[in-house]
Amino acid sequence: MSTERVVDARGSFCPGPLMELIANMKMMAVGDTLELLSTDAGSAADVPEWVKKVGHEMVGTEQDAEGTWHIHVRKAK
Amino acid sequence: MRILVVGGGMGGTIFANNLARRIHQEMKAGKARITMLSASDQHVYQPGWLYVAMGRATPDELVREQASLLEPGIEFHVDPVEEFHLAENHVKTKSGKVHEYDVMVISTGSRPTPENIPGLKENSVNCYTAENAVQFFHQLADFKGGRIVVAVGLPHKCPMIPLEVTFAMHDFIKDKGLLDKTEFYYTYPIGRVHSLENVAKWAAPEFDRMGIKYETLFNMKEVDGKNAAVLSEEGGTVKYDLLVAVPPHKGQEVIEKNKLGENGWIPTNRNSLHMEGEYGKNVLVLGDTTNIPISKAGSTTHFEAEVAAENIAAVIKIGRPVREYDGKVFCFIEAGKDRATYAMFNYTTPPQPKAPTGAVHAFKMAYNQLYWASARGLL
């Protein structure tokens, strides 16, 4: 059964949301999903770019009323 | 109040000394006691290993006796914790002793794990232990020209090291007169040359000016030692003559074994620094040991330790904590052998690094000695 982990990278300038995501993806099993919380607008673009390049799967991206990006990614390999 | 400090590194030491000075009257009156448990009787200034790798320091210069750094009254044992019994408010050590606590501070740090990337440990150098830094210097000193590749694993301690080691090697090779025979190739996990956007905006033109090539979105997958090549998760292959690694890191094994946190990182509240969960009320976590998404760096644990000490002292004296940690980090960035800049930021304000200067480098060199005052909680 797949599980979802939440990575709260709000307010993280260094290492930043994408590096937090990459580090967490290493700890996940294929098929698991991750929800990345980010206050960095750049995450909405740079996360999909990396996910596509590596071959994982984007599940969805939305921004809540407070401006936080919720980015869902599935580990595919 | 019995305060137990697990870990005698930067965080545990600054915390214990800062707190001891704040509550020395209570300690004298027998109303408070600080006990520190560590795996070593030595204290190492880890940022100094970069200088060892460049032949500008030797490992012995970076070490002091831990007991000599501690305030009088702090009980110190070289007897690492093996079991955490959070429900019973005690720990059990390697020697079998049980230490009970009213408040526990865990600051056990992190460790490089190059073995987690196939081929990396056997085929690369790094500056994350004294032994590795010495080996790094030997290889650099014997280097006759070719391609030096910098490759970065995640997560890692000291986020400035990828840049610093690149700039430092550039000056080292320049001084040896080998620049025309050497190609520098810097790789980085995300789509720019550093995690901090403003630092990346400064560093990329510096690389361009120095002729340092770079490839971004490059996460090490394995190292093929036979063909001297690094393969990336993204499908890239980079050949090297000397591979300089920033290895991926984990927290300590004892944290994993006691199921306090995945990969040794303990879930921690980013403001109160209390461990998350039902036993976190009287457990604080500092520095690399936390899972807080900020830099695993000495300055992070320094500022966290000050907040934790002030709060524990306030709880003893007035019954409640007085401060929250705001995510403050201050990192020097060595931009070669004689210039440096810095990045200061917190949870809400990004850094605005300035052009590197000789004055900031001189301050960094002074801080390398001042650290011992810092560890004593004086600075």
UniProtKB/TrEMBL annotation, chain A:
<dbReference type="InterPro" id="IPR001455">
    <property type="entry name" value="TusA-like"/>
</dbReference>
<protein>
    <submittedName>
        <fullName>Sulfurtransferase TusA family protein</fullName>
    </submittedName>
</protein>
<feature type="domain" description="UPF0033">
    <location>
        <begin position="7"/>
        <end position="31"/>
    </location>
</feature>
<comment type="similarity">
    <text>Belongs to the sulfur carrier protein TusA family.</text>
</comment>
<keyword id="KW-0808">Transferase</keyword>
<dbReference type="InterPro" id="IPR036868">
    <property type="entry name" value="TusA-like_sf"/>
</dbReference>
<dbReference type="GO" id="GO:0016740">
    <property type="term" value="F:transferase activity"/>
</dbReference>
<dbReference type="Pfam" id="PF01206">
    <property type="entry name" value="TusA"/>
</dbReference>
UniProtKB/TrEMBL annotation, chain B:
<feature type="domain" description="FAD/NAD(P)-binding">
    <location>
        <begin position="1"/>
        <end position="290"/>
    </location>
</feature>
<protein>
    <submittedName>
        <fullName>NAD(P)/FAD-dependent oxidoreductase</fullName>
    </submittedName>
</protein>
<dbReference type="GO" id="GO:0016491">
    <property type="term" value="F:oxidoreductase activity"/>
</dbReference>
<dbReference type="InterPro" id="IPR052541">
    <property type="entry name" value="SQRD"/>
</dbReference>
<dbReference type="Pfam" id="PF07992">
    <property type="entry name" value="Pyr_redox_2"/>
</dbReference>
<dbReference type="InterPro" id="IPR036188">
    <property type="entry name" value="FAD/NAD-bd_sf"/>
</dbReference>
<dbReference type="InterPro" id="IPR023753">
    <property type="entry name" value="FAD/NAD-binding_dom"/>
</dbReference>
